[in-house]
Design a protein that fits this description.
By secondary structure, the protein is an alpha/beta fold. It has 10 helices and 10 strands. A 4-stranded parallel sheet has the order 2-1-3-4, with helices on both faces. The protein has a two-stranded antiparallel ribbon with strand order 5-6. A two-stranded parallel ribbon has the order 7-8. α1 crosses α5, α5 packs antiparallel against α6 and α6 packs parallel to α10. The longest helix has 25 residues. It starts with about 40 loop residues before the first strand and ends with a helix.
């Protein structure tokens, strides 16, 4: 391993209180880039974007130096890497990424000499939520992400399901233990603490969304398929898996009709991409707007300081929009 330290904030382990999960920032405000990944006395981990960064910090604790390829406020899907970032990756002890989400990262990882490559997509089962696209947006992006699972892309947004995210966390912990055995006990202990937090979050969502007036919610892009499936909801996306794609007029009309049929009250948008289409649809259909954060990055606009805090805010927004009882 290679003295640059990032202080990792501790987060108290919580129980199943519906919205009682404490939130403290797990990432430093001076988030470093992969250009400074190597040459510290810690276990150096390059994370591709925020959900991977959060896992590395939570599991690694004081033993890791975590750097991220995707800066706060940067939309991760179309990330382009600098030569400095790519070179820095090769100096790291490990890279943690989610294959298919960021093609530039996938290419850099393949070409890097980093010893430990941890692909989060292999640590849980990716599913096909391609039906949310309805051939009205995201086709080009879907083709890029196409895998062996049939005619649609496999949805990479697994971190928005706390249960699947916990599965990934367990796999990351095992990889850390193997790559840095001197601190294996601490990695295992940290992973158990994180598992309890994610279990509490899962319980909060189950309880909060068990009884609602509607089960249908509208989003800007199809990031919430796993969350919807986990908690018995139906996601209808304006765009497909690609947040920058444009919906067809037919899709807009379809959503307007569905809003009336299913009692939809709210169109959700997100902080890292334009809210123009979502707000136009809401205005035309007489609906409210609110934020449902896909947690692809934490910024000053985020409704929470870390993964748990933002997920709590997402739950509150869903409870309000769906008429939780």
């Amino acid at each position: 391993m290679n003295v640059r330290r990032r202080r990792i904030s501790g987060i108290a382990v919580t129980a199943a209180a519906a919205l009682g999960l404490g939130t403290l920032s797990a990432c430093s405000s001076d988030s470093s880039t992969a250009g400074t990944a190597g040459n510290t006395d810690k276990f150096d981990v390059v994370a591709s974007f925020y959900p991977m960064e959060y896992l590395a910090e939570q599991i690694g604790g004081d033993h890791v130096n975590v750097t991220t390829l995707t800066e706060p406020g940067q939309e991760p899907h179309d990330l382009e890497l600098s030569a400095r970032q790519t070179a820095g990756m090769g100096e790291a002890d490990a890279v943690l990424y989610l294959k298919s989400l960021q093609p530039a990262v996938d290419k850099a990882v393949d070409q890097s000499g980093v010893k430990t490559k941890i692909d989060a997509a292999t640590l849980t089962k990716l599913e096909d939520h391609g039906d949310v696209e309805h051939d009205h947006g995201g086709e080009e992006h879907a083709e890029e992400e196409h895998s062996e699972g049939g005619g649609h892309a496999l949805d990479p947004h697994v971190w928005l399901d706390p249960v699947k995210y916990a599965e990934i966390a367990q796999g990351v912990a095992r990889a850390f233990e193997k790559a840095d055995p001197d601190h294996a006990d601490d990695y295992r202990e940290n992973a158990e603490a994180l598992a309890k937090k994610l279990s509490g979050l899962d319980t909060a969502f189950k309880n909060g969304l068990a009884k609602t007036g509607s089960k249908v919610f509208f989003t800007n892009h199809a990031a919430f398929g796993y969350l919807a499936e986990r908690y018995g909801l139906t996601q209808e996306a304006i765009n497909g898996l690609d947040p920058e794609s444009e919906p067809s007029p037919a899709r807009i009309k379809e959503l307007q009709e569905e809003a009336r049929a299913d009692g939809v009250t709210t169109v959700f948008y997100e902080t890292l991409v334009s809210d123009k289409t979502a707000k136009t649809l809401a205005k035309d259909a007489g609906l409210k707007t609110d934020v449902l954060d896909p947690l692809e990055g934490i910024t000053d606009k985020s409704r929470g300081e870390d993964y748990v805090g933002v997920m709590e805010a997402n739950l509150k927004a869903l409870e309000t929009a769906l008429g939780a009882k």
